[in-house]
Amino acid sequence: MSQPEKPVKRPKLLSMIGPGILVAATGVGAGDLSGAGFAGSQLGVAVLWAVLVGAFFKFVLAEGLTRWQLATGQTLLEGVARRLGKWAGYLFLPYFLLWTYVVGTALMAANGVTLYAIFPIFKDAAQGKVVFGILSSIAGLVLVRRGGFKLFEKVMGVCIFVMFFTVVISAFVVSPPFPEVLKGLLIPSIPNPDNGGIAWTMALIGGIGSTVTILCYGYWIAEEGRHGPGMLTFCRIDLGVGYVMIALFGIAMVIIGNTVTASGTGAGLIIEIADSFESSLGPIGRWAFLIGAFGAVFSSLLGVWQSAPYLFADIWRLFISKKYHEEWTDQAILTSTQSLPYKSYLYGIATVPMIGLLVQFREIQKIYGIVAVGFLPLLTIALILLNGRTSWIGKFKNRPATVVVLLSVLVFFGWMAWQSWF
Asked: In the prediction, which pLDDT does 26 show?
């Protein structure tokens, strides 16, 4: 049952873009810092177009799930359960568990290698990655568990300001000639397609702008009290700002990655980038990059730790628990952080993926992008079906142009997933 539309209270600019900042802070980090850095080191700035494609496609998907939620008063997962059947949730749950493990390991590893580059107090990078990765996970757990949504929002705002300012400025300093950058942005090409070029490009697009955590935007706008179709315009602006920031950050990291040759390990790449800044700009350049890098990876970890348990709590409510709620209410979302499913999954994501820290970081990043990209065709199909019927969503159904874009997203990511898996 749809909620009655409430009078629209026009938010101030900063509050309007709040959840979009969370999307940007969560969407960049492990995927952009390491994935884009590796892609830049392997393929150069020729794949900058892939950053724009990834950011635009993710914006379209995020707008679609937001439109569904504001028009119907249901989360996307609830729409899937009500309209498409619970079988979809049973298929999604194993994938979500796999995604949680892979992304959890990738985020811990990204934080570990970045902190090791800042504080090289261990004998080797692998040991530093493990210790600092575990400490970062515990810090994220404490902040999410003790601080609540408001503290989470403030910390994420600080992190994204630091990472955006330092990393984008750093990329501007080391950028190749502008015509070369412009060519990479406007003319699609994939260098070395038969020697890993396609896989790295796919991983870059899969990592830009988040994947499964796109679904969490709905829970964040609920936390902000945004309900009813009257808030759609504000959410579109909010998402637009967030994905522009994601695109700029991804472009910056590809440019920075282009300045070094990957050594084969994540710690080696991050240290090489920092060293290259030190050789050209001095210690200030090195520290500026490392501080921005840590802001990126820690905000991404914090965002996933806070938001992924929302999804599991909703999955539990809709597909596992016998106490199925006929109505989705504000209170059900706002109090979900105190539920047993939410807390259990938070502790799980902060601990179980620690096992993966023993795997080489470079391979974790590649697997992370490949696994993540497999979710996007499924999300696209759900949005085509749910937002395609007037009887379900009313006048907010997909427009013909939106359908064309969604079909393009489906074909693109479906092809990418096929290339990866088969």
From this structure: 80
pLDDT tops 90 at residue 397: yes
Q: What is the pTM of this model?
A: 0.84
Rounded mean pLDDT, 192-199: 74
| Domain map (residue ranges) of the chain | 19-177+195-370
CATH 1.20.1740.10 fits 19-177+195-370, yes or no: yes
What whole-number distance in Å separates Cα of residue 80 and Cα of residue 86? 7
